[in-house]
Design brief:
This protein has 2 domains: 182 residues, Rossmann fold (3-Layer(aba) Sandwich); 149 residues, Rossmann fold, CATH 3.40.50.2300. The chain is 36% helix and 21% strand. Strand 11, helix 8 and strand 12 form a beta-alpha-beta unit. Bound molecules: benzoic acid. The site of benzoic acid (BEZ) has 12 residues, from loops.
Length: 401
């Protein structure tokens, strides 16, 4: 049985983060790239403006809240400064997809003239923004969205503190192939870039390890509420296990319906860790027990730096941290090092300094950016188990890639 010394709990209301110089809510639209982005011209006085773009609404709103909390915790621990400079945070609501996320985030660059942007949950939003950041020479520090193509070729303006969709999914392939043996696995995911890449990454590694696929289905993103027709298909396929990609509100509904439909007892459920992360697991309750996932973090990770982080996060927000909070906390740490070493704090100056940030001392374990600007990190096999203080993602193994 695992032991937690922190309790999952309601979100602390009204936490005042006095260290953030100012938080402005940016609305959608506005500006053009030719108006110029990239913040101050480099006189290196006054606060550095950093954009924070995460979902405040839609399927992934809870992920956005966790990222905001992780980013703010780092700022709070550093007196509101990054690299010794005061920080002004300008916030935008990414919403549910590119139609909201692209204009809201573009405005941070063109109108608010930030020096860098942190955030972006949804892969389709990040893909829609990639060109904007490259052209305007402002760094985008992606703190979640896993679209493989974003970092297929390294750009000085695109950095990621999270994962690639293909990488975190592929990590699970061999372990599942070993588990199911002569059986087969059904693949089901949200129908957009992240779901497709997740299925493809898993399938490639799983089949290479001798696994058999029983079928593959994609469900409309953001509008599916009844999974029964898809669950019937899974049952009639005769699959012995299921691999899936869902996160946020979709993960809650899928896992609950998977259990209610009676599949959980006989058909082992696997997925990437977003399926059972944080508040999502609280909402799924007993329906999630036994689900196995791959991820680069669990709040139950045994290390001094994670214990310190979990305690600080719990003290600030009265709940345990998620991978989303860690990714945003690490984005702040990367910017801290970059601004410290930057010759100027406009977009180009920070982008140049990002190449030299070195090792990030993270709650997930120390990591560095690889040559494509993704974290070079291990993945863990996690299983939802009931412990003395509730449900948790217990680390049951380390995955090879
Ligand atoms: C993505 O769109 O890349 C994504 C969204 C939520 C969780 C993980 C990945």
């Amino acid at each position: 049985m695992f032991k937690r010394d922190v309790q999952r709990g309601h979100r602390a209301a009204g936490l005042v983060l006095t260290s953030v110089a100012a938080v402005l809510l940016a609305s959608c639209g506005g500006g053009s790239l030719s108006e110029g982005g990239g913040g101050e011209s480099g006189d290196n006085s006054g606060p550095v403006k950093i954009g924070l773009s995460v979902p405040v609404s839609g399927v992934y709103a809870s992920l956005g809240e966790d990222m905001t909390q992780g980013f703010n915790l780092y700022l709070d621990e550093n007196d509101g400064k990054l690299g010794g400079r005061d920080i002004e945070v300008v916030s935008a609501d990414e919403g549910e997809g590119p139609e909201t996320g692209v204009p809201a985030t573009t405005k941070l660059v063109t109108q608010d003239q930030v020096s860098a942007v942190v955030g972006i949950v949804n892969s389709s939003v990040a893909l829609g923004l990639q060109e904007t950041f490259v052209q305007s020479e402002v760094p985008l520090i992606i703190a979640n969205a896993g679209a493989d193509d974003l970092t297929a070729e390294a750009s000085p303006y695109i950095w990621r503190t999270s994962f690639t969709n293909g990488g975190v999914a592929a990590a699970l392939g061999e372990a599942v192939a070993e588990d199911v043996g002569d059986g087969s696995v059904y693949l089901i995911a949200a129908d957009y870039a992240a779901g497709e890449e997740s299925v493809n990454g898993f399938k490639e590694a799983f089949e290479a390890a001798g696994g058999t696929v029983a079928g593959e289905t994609y469900t409309p993103f953001g509008t599916t509420s009844d999974w029964q027709p898809y669950l019937s298909k899974i049952r009639s396929s005769g699959a012995t296990a299921v691999y899936t990609f869902y996160a946020g509100a979709e993960a809650v509904n899928f896992v609950k319906q998977y259990s209610t439909f009676g599949l959980a007892e006989k058909t082992q459920l696997y997925g990437v860790g977003f399926l059972t992360e944080g508040g999502v697991l609280d909402a799924q309750g007993q329906a999630a027990v036994g689900t196995q996932t791959s991820l680069h973090y669990s709040d139950l990770l045994e290390s001094d730096s994670n214990r310190r982080f979990v305690d600080a996060y719990q003290a600030a927000y009265d709940e345990v941290p998620t991978v989303y909070a860690v990714q945003a906390y690490d984005a702040a740490a990367a910017l801290d090092a970059a601004i410290e070493g930057a010759e100027s704090t406009d977009g180009a100056g920070i982008a140049e300094a990002m190449a030299d940030v070195g090792e990030i001392d993270s709650p997930r374990g120390a990591w560095s950016f690889d040559e494509n600007h993704n974290p070079d990190q291990p993945y863990y096999l996690r299983e939802v188990q009931e412990g003395e203080s509730g449900l948790g993602n217990v680390i049951v193994g380390k995955l090879t890639q």
